[in-house]
Amino acid sequence: MQSIKGLENQRWFIWTIILIMIIGISLATYIYYVGQTDDWGASGDFVIHHPKLTTITATGWKTYTDEAGDFSVSYPSTWNTSGSPESEDGELILAGKEGEVDIATQELGGACGNEQYENVNVGGETFNACHWIDNYGIENWSLIYKQINNQVAVGISALANPPLQYDRPVLIEVLKGFKFVK
């Protein structure tokens, strides 16, 4: 039969081990969570941390010019195109492994919900685009509108697939490569 003091030592040891395990699991969960999510900056603005980005040069890229001559855009030669701004649905999609850019000339509209805004260079102009990274790690920009004339407006949305350090610069370069002709 164990003494009372021996039982108390055993309980103390078991509770110490349980407490260490709880602290360790909590710490590991916290470290994982902090590494997986964005956070709030000191100013109260939501801060999205981008990994070190690669540099892209747009050599050998294709150029799409719409039939009306309102805009053109350069994109990687490995990307595919579908649709056309002149088609019934008024949408052109440029897509590749890095992500996609959707260009529409009909039925533009929308609002930015809980997402944040980010200044984006599109064709040498700065647009305040709705910006977020979804649960799958896909970075999104939307609500980029350019009024070309009284009858034509161009709406652009883009998404960059993960890993963002490689694919985000490609999408940024495509957006910069827009040229609004009129």
General description of the model:
With 182 residues, the protein is α+β, with helices and mostly antiparallel strands. It has 2 domains: 4-37; 62-180, 3-Layer(aba) Sandwich (Protein Transport Mog1p, Chain A). The chain has helices spanning 4-36, 164-176, and strands at 39-40, 46-47, 62-65, 71-75, 80-84, 91-96, 99-104, 116-122, 125-133, 139-147, 153-160, 179-180. The radius of gyration is 25 Å and the shape is elongated. The N and C termini lie far apart (95 Å).
Question: Percentage of helical residues?
Answer: 25-40%
Return Rg in Å. 25 Å
Strand content: 35-45%
Secondary-structure element series: HEEEEEEEEEEEHE
Annotated CATH architecture of the largest domain: 3-Layer(aba) Sandwich
Structural class: alpha+beta
Report how far the terminal alpha carbons are from each other. Answer: 95 Å
CATH H-tier superfamily of the largest domain = Mog1/PsbP, alpha/beta/alpha sandwich
User: Would you tell me which CATH topology of the largest domain applies?
Assistant: Protein Transport Mog1p, Chain A
CATH class of the largest domain: Alpha Beta
Figure out the total of helices.
2
Mean pLDDT: 77
- Give the spatial strand order of the biggest sheet: 5-6-7-11-10-9-8
Query: Main β-sheet, in a few words?
Result: 7 strands, antiparallel
Quick synopsis:
This protein is α+β, with helices and mostly antiparallel strands and 182 residues long. It has helices at residues 4-36, 164-176; strands at residues 39-40, 46-47, 62-65, 71-75, 80-84, 91-96, 99-104, 116-122, 125-133, 139-147, 153-160, 179-180. The chain folds into two domains: 4-37; 62-180, Protein Transport Mog1p, Chain A.
